[in-house]
Structures are given as structure tokens and as C-alpha cells.
Amino acid sequence: MKKNAPLIILDRDGVINIDSPAYVKSAEEWHPIPGSIEAIVAMKKAGYQIALATNQSGIGRGYFDRAGLDRMHAKLGGLLAAYNTQIDAIYHCPHLPDAGCQCRKPQPGMLLQALHDFSQPAATTWMVGDSYKDVQAAIAAGCKPAVVKTGNGLDTITRIAADVPIFDNLQAVAAFLCEMAISH
Fold first, then answer.
1. pLDDT in tens, 122-138
2. 11 is an active site residue
3. 13 is catalytic
């Protein structure tokens, strides 16, 4: 981890890959949203560190196990490896919504752990998600929230404050953040 490189925290389902109301339960069901892999590559080339923070209650529900989650992330890693890049860290919460844990978004636990691990200030760290829980977690952690219209984003944008940036997809986020990186 490059201690001085800015951090972007991404939600996974609905931001990087196509989400499913029946849960993405296997690597075979895991499919990237068109352009999302290239967006991650662009952000990495612009000097950002990338972490994932993803609720994965499918583990707690028994839909898949940790090995299955690892296979999904290995598929993501393989797609990024084709561009000679990678995700810097992956944080996941396996708990059910009523478990009362501090890691499941909207709680900020995964984001706070990433900020600590990467030694990054919350105020300059972006959290990109498609759900209201992502926005709540970002605000609770002191990060800058951004919402994409993919996944659950169209429902989410009706619930967020006017000052939360909204983007069509992860590619639009990458274009915005890469422009910011160039101007600084």
C-alpha cells in the first residue's frame, strides 16, 4: 500500500458487477458492469489506491461460503490482471442485517478499517456506492460519498442529499476522479 496515494473505496454489487435480487452466489454468476473494469484500471493509473467494502450477507444466509466469495474476487482479480493492475484490499461483511455488527453498511466499520489500513484521511477519501447504505456509511466514516445510477442507484438518488454527487456509472466516476488527480 502506498501511504501517500489517495484512496477510493468502492462498493461491489451494483457498482463493479451486475447485482441480483437473488444474490450473486458464484463466480459464474459474477459479471462485470460494462466499463467497470476499465474504470478501475483508469483510477489505478491515475495514482489512486482502490479498496472494496462489500456487504455479503449471502454468506450468513448460507447461499455461498467464504471460498465462493474468494472465487468471485479471484474472477475480478483475473479481469484486472489482464490490465496489469489489481484491487489493493477487499473488506467484506458476512453478517445478516440484524446481527448488530459494526462492519455491515450502513455502519462505517469496513470504511474505518480501510482508512486505518491505508493511513488515509477520511475527508479526502471517496466512497462510491449504489445504495443508500453506502452513502450512510460514507458519511458516518467522514468520507466523501458518491452514487452511481447502476445497481440500486436510481432508487438511491431519490433519497440522498443534494450535495452528494451522482454519476451514470463507475466509468463516469473514474473520469471525474482522474480529472481531479490531473488538476492537483
1. 999 999 999 999 999 99
2. yes
3. yes
Catalytic annotation, pick one of 11, 88, 130, 134: 11
- 3-state per-residue secondary structure call for 16-48: CECCCCCCCCCCCCCCECCCHHHHHHHHHHCCC
64, with CB counted inside 10 A (0-12, 13-18, 19+), is: buried
pLDDT, tens digit (0-9, with 9 covering 90-100), for 165-181:
999 999 999 999 999 87
Distance CA 135, CA 114 (A): 16
* 11 DSSP assignment: -
pLDDT band with cut points at 50, 70 and 90 for residue 184: low
C-alpha grid cell, residue 36: 467497470
Rounded to two decimals, what is the model's pTM? Answer: 0.96
Residue showing cell 475527508? 123
Is the pLDDT score of 3 beyond 90?
no
Residue 14 DSSP label: T
Written as nine digits, the cell of 109 is: 466499520
Starting from the edge strand earliest in sequence, which strands make up the sheet with 49-55, in order? 89-93, 49-55, 7-10, 126-129, 144-148, 166-167
